[in-house]
Amino acid sequence: MKQIHLAAQLPGIHNTTVWSDPRSESQIDVESFIKLARTAERGKFDFFFLAEGLRLREHKGRVHDLDVVGRPEGLTVLSALAGVTTRLGLAATVNATFNEPYEVARRLATLDHLSEGRAAWNVVTSFDAFTGENFRRGGFLAEADRYTRAAEFLATARELWDSWGAGDVLADRAAGEFIRPAAGEFTHQGQHFDISGRFSTPRGPQGHPVVIQAGESEEGREFAAAEADVIFSKYDDLDQARAFYRDVKRRLAAYGRAPGDLLIIPSATYVLGDTEEEAAERAAAITRAQVGPRTALTFVEAVWGHDLSGYDPDGPLPDIEPAPDNLVLKGHSTFRKDRAATARRWRGIADERKLSIRELVIEVTGRQTFVGTPRTVADAIDTFVRTDGADGFVLVPHLTPGLDDFVDSVVPLLQEKGVFRADYTGTTLRDHLGLAPRTGAPRTEKEAS
Amino acid sequence: MTSLHLAVALDGAGWHPAAWRAPDARPAELFTAGYWADLVTEAERGLLDFVTIEDELALQTASLHLPDQRTDQVRGRLDAVLLAARLAPLTSRIGLVPTANVTHTEPFHISTGIATLDHASHGRAGWRPQIASRAADAAHFGRRATPQLTSEDVQDSTLIAARLLELFGEASDVVETVRRLWDSWEDDAEIRDAATGRFIDRDKLHHIDFEGDRFRVRGPSITPRSPQGQPVVTSLAHAVTPYEFAARSVDVVYITPHTHDEVVTVTAQVQEAQRTVGRTGAPLKVFADLVVLLDDEPGAAAGRTARLDELAGTPLTSDARIYTGSAAGLADLLLDWRDAGLDGFRLRPGALPHDLRGITRRLVPELQRRGAFRTAYTATTLRGHLGLSRPASRYAVPR
To answer: Does the pLDDT of residue B337 top 80, yes or no?
Structure first.
C-alpha cells in the first residue's frame, strides 16, 4: 500500500497564521519550535520544515504590519532542534542567490553531522534588488540568471560534499594519521563560480543532505527531475495535482532516476471538527481571521497597484483600471507576477458572484485544503496520495505552533489504514523518505582519474 | 576582592597539535554533537562565564599564512554558530561564543544567526568576528582577492596588522552593521493589537541604512531583537590595529601577554586604543589568553606535554603563554596577572577533555577557595555573567 509522507511547517510570516487567536504562541521563541518539532516527531513525521525571509515586506514604503512578522535564521534554529529530537528530519530553506556554495555546503554538512543524518535543504532563488538591499552584493542577478546560478550552486555544493570521502577521517592515533591526504580538495570552474581549495567539513552521515526544490515552471520541473529528492508543489486540486505528478515523474527517466527517487509533497492546511458542519464553520471563521478588512484591501492594492485606502473592504471592487507596474506591496512573491491578468480574473469572479472586496480575497486566497472530521480528512489525504496526486503533504497549522490535533486524531487513523508508519524504521531522513544514500561522484573516481 | 571571569576556548581535541593522540582523547568523535555536549556541560559544571568555539572558512593549517598538506593533525571543522546552537538546549547558563567570519560572510546572515543563537539560548549568545587572514581562503569564494601575508610579515604581529589594515576596517563596518541590525527591532515592536489588526508597531522597526566605503545594508533585520539585545562581541588581538578594532567594535578583547610586565604594557595599549577611537559606553573587558596543561602531581603536566611534543615531532608553540603545572600554580599566576589589570582569562586547554577537567575540577575550586571566582551562577545571560547591562536599542526614542 502506498505510504504517505508527512512534514510539518511552523507557520511563517504570512497572514495565514491567525495571530489574533489567544492560543497562537510566539513565532520567535525557541520553545514554539521545540514544541512543534516534538509534536511532529511524536506523530512520526518525516521532517520539520522552515521557510526563509531575507527582507521584511513593505506596503507603501513601510514595513507591512498586519501579518506575523519576525523569524529566526533557519539552520541555526534547526541545529538547536537537532538536540531535542532524535529522528525527525530538519529542513531549512536557504537562498542560492545571496549566499555562496562554500558556506552553505559547510553549514548543511554541519547540520547533517549534528543531527546524525537528518538535514535537508530547500533550494530557493531570489533576484530582486529589494531583497538585495540587505546584502553586500545588492541586486546583482538578473531574473533570467537565477536558475542557472541555482543549478550551478547546487552542483558546486555537491562537489564540495563529495570532496571528502566517507572514510577520509582516519583518526588513527597509532599511525598518527588524522585524515587521508588531499581530503577536501576541490576545483570548480563555471559561469557563476570559479573556486578552488580545501573544503573544511568532512562528509556528513547522509553524504548529501536531502535536496528539496519548489517551482512549477518548465525549468523548475526539469531542475527538480534532475537534482531534487523532494519537490514542494502547490497543487491541492486533485486533477491538477495528478497531472503535475505524472509530468514530473515522467521526466525522471531521462536522468536515470526511478519514480521513487523524487517525492512530490505539496503544502496543505487542514481544519478539523467533530462533524463536517462544525469543521466547515471553523474553516470559515479561520479564513475570516486570516483575511481581515485591512488585509483584504492590502491584497487588492497589491494587485491593482493603487492606494485604495478610501475604499470599503465590505463594498465592491474599485472601478478604476489597475496599474500593475506600480509595486505597492514589496517582498510578497504571490503578488509579483502577472498582476494585470490577476486583476482581470479577480474582477471576473467578483462580478459573477457579487462579492465584496473581502469576500473576493477570501475566495481567491483563503481556501483550506482538508476540512472535515478526522476520519474524512484521513480518507481525503489517503485518496489524494493513493491516486497519485502527491506522495504526501507539508502540513501548515493556522496557529503557532499547532498540529497537536492532527497528530492526535488523524495520524492514528492513517496508521490504522496501514498507509503511514507506526514508528520510524530508520534513523536518517533519507531512510524516512526511502531514498538511497547519495554518493555523487565518489572519491575513488577522482583518485582513478 | 573582585571576582575574575573565566572562559574556555574549545577547538578540536585541544590546542596541542598532538592532543588528538592522547590516551583519553576522542578523535573519531570530533564531528559528533555528543563530544561537544560533554565538553560544554563540563564547562558549565565549572560555572565558567562562556566557551568560545573556533572556526574558519578553510581547513586548518600549521602555518599562519599558507595552507598545508599535513595529515598528522586535526583537520576539519563544523560551523561554529550551528554547533553553538546545537549545544544551547543542552545547557542553561553558560555563554556560547562561536567564531564567524567577517571577510567573506554577509553581515545580514551573521546578524540573524547570532540573534537566533541568542533566542535559542535565552540570552547566552556571543560572537567572535574573525577576518580571513589567509589569501587562499578567498579562493573558496572566488569573489575578491585579499592581502597575502609574507613570511616576513608573520614574524611580527605589527606587520601582520599593517598588511591586513583594510580587512580590519571592513571588519569594523561589518560589526557596526550587525549591531545596527540587532537594534533594528525595538524590544516591544510586536504588539498583536487585535483592535487595529496590527501585529507589529512599524514605527518600532527601523531601516539601518548602513553606508560605508565598501558596502551598504538597508535593514531592518528579519529577526526580532534578542534576549540580550546586543549579544556579547569578542575578539582576539595582538597589535595596535586589532586593539583599535576591539576598542571600536567589541565588548571583550583577548590579549596574549607572556609575563606580568607584558600584561601591564598591553593593557595600557588597550586603554590607549580606547582613547584613540573615542570609545564610549562600557570599557572593554580585557581577558588574557593562556594555553594550559594541568596536572597536580609535580612534573606530570610537563611530562604529558613532552610526550605530546614527541608525538608532534616538535615542541608546542603558541601566540599565547603556555602554562604547564598544577592548578594551584595557575591560580597564583591568574591572580598575579589580574592584579596587573585584567578582567579575566580565556584558557585554551592543551588536551581535551583532560585539561578542561583540570580547569573545572581543580582550578575553579582553587579560585573559589581564594574568593576569586563565583560559587554559583548569579545571572542567566552572558551579559549578566560579565556584569554588562542590557542596552536599549539605539533607535528607541523615549515615548
So the answer is: yes
- Check CB contact of A134 with chain B, cutoff 8 Å: yes
| Cα B345 from Cα A108, distance rounded (Å) | 33
Which cell is B212 given?
560605508
pLDDT average, residue stretch A154-181: 97
Interface test with A, best of B119, B201, B206, B209 (most A CBs within 10 A): B119
Q: Does B86 touch chain A (CB under 8 A)?
A: yes
Indicate the residue type of B345: F
- pLDDT of res. A440: 53
Asked if B285 and B270 touch (Cβ cutoff 8 Å), the reply is no
Specify the pLDDT at position B228: 98
B28 with A20: Cβ contact below 8 A: no
Is A136's Cβ below 8 Å from some Cβ in B?
A: yes
Residues of B in contact with A77 (CB under 8 A): 85, 116, 119-120
E strand residue ranges, A248-347: 263-264, 267-268, 270-272, 329-330
Residue type, A357: I
Alpha carbon distance B327, B325 (integer Å):
7
The answer to whether residue A449 scores a pLDDT higher than 50 is: no
Among A261, A237, A267, A266, which Cα is nearest to A249's?
A261
Q: How far apart are CA A401 and CA A26, in angstroms?
A: 8
Within chain A, how many helices (H) and strands (E) appear?
15, 18
Mean predicted lDDT score pLDDT of chain A: 92
Neighbours of A92 (CB within 10 A): 26
Put simply, the chain B residues between 201 and 230 with a CB less than 8 A from any chain A CB are 201-202, 205, 214-220, 222-224
Predicted confidence (pLDDT) per residue in A338-374, tens digit: 888 899 999 999 999 999 999 999 999 888 899 999 9
Count of Cβ atoms closer than 10 Å to residue A176 Cβ = 16
Rounded-to-5 percentages of helix, strand, coil across chain A: 40, 15, 45
* Integer Cα distance of A313 and B73 in angstroms: 68
pLDDT tens, residue by residue, A375-425:
999 999 999 999 999 999 999 999 999 999 999 999 999 999 999 999 999
By the 8 A CB rule, do A72 and B222 touch?
no
d(CA A185, CA A160): 8
pLDDT per residue over B52-98, tens digit each?
999 999 999 999 999 999 999 999 999 999 999 999 999 999 999 99
Q: In Å, how far are A1, A3, A18, A405 from A418, measured between CA atoms?
A: 7, 8, 33, 20
- What residues pair up with A92 in beta bridges, in sequence order? A50, A121
Q: Report the alpha-carbon distance of residue A55 to residue A59 in Å, rounded.
A: 13
* pLDDT computed for residue B350 by the predictor: 98
Question: Model ipTM?
Answer: 0.98
For residues B1-30, give the mean pLDDT: 94
Helix runs in A90-217, H state only: 101-114, 129-132, 146-162
